Structures are given as C-alpha cells and as structure tokens.
Request: fold
Amino acid sequence: MFTGIIEAIGSIRALTPKGGDVRVYVQTGKLDLSDVKLGDSIAVNGVCLTAVELPGDGFWADVSRETLARTAFIDLKAGSKVNLEKALTPSSRLGGHLVSGHVDGIGEVIARADNARAVQFTIRAPRELAKYIAHKGSITVDGTSLTVNAVNGAEFELTIVPHTLAETIMVDYQAGRQVNLEVDLLARYLERLLLGDKAADGKASGLTESFLAEHGYLKN
Reply:
C-alpha cells in the first residue's frame, strides 16, 4: 500500500525485453534506498513494482504483460522521468489516501492552464471509471494523490499547487499526455458491497441506474 505522496522523481535508465515481458531499471535519484530490500514494493508512476535487483543507485523490476497492457508504462523509454514512492510502513504518515498501486486505467491530459501560482489540469478518464470520480474526492494520477475539484462526465479538473509541481513529474504535463489513473479504493469496495448477493453472480457487471432504483437508492 502507498499514500500517493511522491517521495522523489526518478528516471528510467533501461527497458530490456525478457521472455515476452520487460525488465526495467529505475534510477531513483534522492529516494532513500537504505531500508529497501529485495522483494520490496516501490510505486513507479503509480504502478506497484517489486525490486528484484538493487545495484545501488536504483532498482530493477519486472513489468508483466498485464501491466504493459493496462498502464501508460508502454510509453516510457530510457530517460523518461517517473514519480517514486516506497510502500507504507506501520509508522508512515498517511498524508494522501490509501493507494494500492494497481492502476485502473489510462487517462489523457486534455488541457493545461495557469491559475494564479497553481496550474489547472483537465483530464479525461476512461468512461468505465467516470462513476468512481467524485467532486472533492480522491484520485491517483501517476501515483500522486490528488483532490478532484470539478467533474464533467468522464472529465475532471485538478488544481496543482507549486510544491506538487516541483516535487512530481506533473510540471511536464501537456495536452495529449497519457497518465495512469487509480480510483479511490473505497469507491470500488462500496460498489461491490451495494451489489450484495448479486456480486456472486458472474453476470453482475456493476451498479446501474435500474439496479439502484430497484433497491431503493434512487427516488422519483
């Protein structure tokens, strides 16, 4: 588990095809690796990866086909900057929100505009994720825990303060950028709980307006 508070900006040093998937070498910059051991988890742009080698200034990790298919990791290359966060420990401060490091989908930055000293971004999420994104709710973008300031269909707005711009790769975001999205864990579990016994039905595809009306969650 992670908090979505980025600890360092690293960079991709190498991407090596291996047995049908990819092994990646992440140079970790100022991230303190003194307490990291083989098998530990590190979030790279919000993707939970396992350290399989620790050469000193970074770590090697294996990236599965599933991860390549479901995240914007496929767009990274040697030299790409990435957000880094080590996994939570029992004594960690929970400064953001609970983040699993399991990306739900790929979003796209569709607008960037100055807002006083901050920067406002508009991001379009996949349609199937829109129901989990709420005004003033939490969302993780490339591993960064952020607050949603406005929602319009599958598009949402973020206002990013100077500190976050300086400490994450968001400073480089421009329209057209692909980003990893992870919705709030509570929203996903709430949907499953509301399905009740129907969750065990293999045909259950999630909450629909008709389902909510049938069970008294919507009023005429």
